[in-house]
Specification:
By secondary structure, the protein is of the alpha+beta class. The protein has 7 helices and 16 strands.
């Protein structure tokens, strides 16, 4: 039986109920985080808390995130997930329940806080080595994608389009620039240089993205944070996506065309291996590497 957290209580998921007046339900008025957990240890939870805090501040929602760490620990324990190789904790805060108005409700409206924890199956080495496919799609999202809001319909539609085209992922293109994946950050390798879109209002500042930039610096891999025109995609030798559950995912085909030689490249492999090593250092869990 799944146990969830809702507004200060831990209870079976089937007993958790939200008001139909909740602004998350009516407007998507809220923010969320998904934290990967390895062997019961959340990976870089402090960074997730900081990003949630920035999102709450950006939306003007008054919620103190300091209790978030304790909620993560307790919900993992109650769902008996502390010994799992990998799990995820989903944590969501909305502006709360109030009569529907487009302006904010009264300042004393209590936010709605919801969390759950579930097992997560990591990608196996064989699947990782085969690589993934992606399509490019116009970016129809709002101009503040740096805030991790509940308003994910453009990403849902993009991912469904990818599925119907028998691809694994979608890459958003805005004004001719490949910015990020539908639910991940985007990296390229060209002439030995690691490229990614600069942190701005056009991308979500990913926790895994941050780790990869750190690891690239430690490995001596040159890095440029700059916009990459989508017309340059045929010229890159490697592409990979990063995210809390994506980890490091090589993309070997885009819009039906191979990337490089159609296999995960050396920079992707190096950074993936170093990322797993960093998880082992910080969480104490040795994870399966790739061939």
């Amino acid at each position: 039986m799944d146990v969830v957290f809702l507004n200060g209580e831990y209870l079976p998921s089937e007993q958790a109920h939200l008001s139909v007046d909740d602004r998350g339900f009516l407007f998507g008025d809220g923010v969320y985080e998904v934290t990967p957990v390895y062997g019961g240890e959340p990976f870089r939870l402090d960074r997730h808390m900081a990003r949630l805090r920035r999102g709450l501040r950006g939306l003007g929602i008054d919620y103190d995130v300091t209790g978030m760490k304790g909620i993560h620990r307790e919900i993992l324990s109650r769902n008996e997930l502390k010994d799992e190789e990998m799990a995820v904790v989903y944590f969501q805060v909305t502006r709360g329940a109030a009569p529907r108005t487009h302006h904010f409700p009264p300042s004393d409206t209590a936010p709605t806080v919801y969390a759950y924890a579930r097992r997560f199956a990591r990608r196996e080495a064989g699947e990782w080595n085969r690589g993934s496919s992606a399509i490019t799609i116009p970016d129809s999202r709002w101009a503040r994608t740096d805030i991790k809001t509940l308003q994910l319909l453009p990403s849902v539609l993009a991912q469904e389009t990818a599925r119907r085209r028998e691809a694994n992922d979608a890459i958003f293109v805005r004004d001719g620039i490949a910015v990020e994946g539908a639910h991940s950050n985007l990296f390229f390798v060209r002439d030995g240089v690691l490229l990614t879109h600069p942190a701005s209002n056009q991308i979500l500042p990913g926790i895994t993205r941050e780790a990869i930039l750190e690891l690239a610096g430690e490995a001596g891999i040159p890095v440029e944070e700059r916009p990459l025109p989508s017309e340059e995609l045929p010229e890159v030798s490697e592409v990979f996506l990063t995210g809390s559950t994506t980890e490091v995912r090589p993309v070997v085909r885009i819009d039906g065309r191979p990337v490089g030689d159609g296999r995960p490249g050396p920079v992707t492999r190096t950074l993936h291996g170093r990322f797993l090593d960093r998880i082992a250092e910080e969480c104490g869990v040795a994870l399966q590497t790739v061939a």
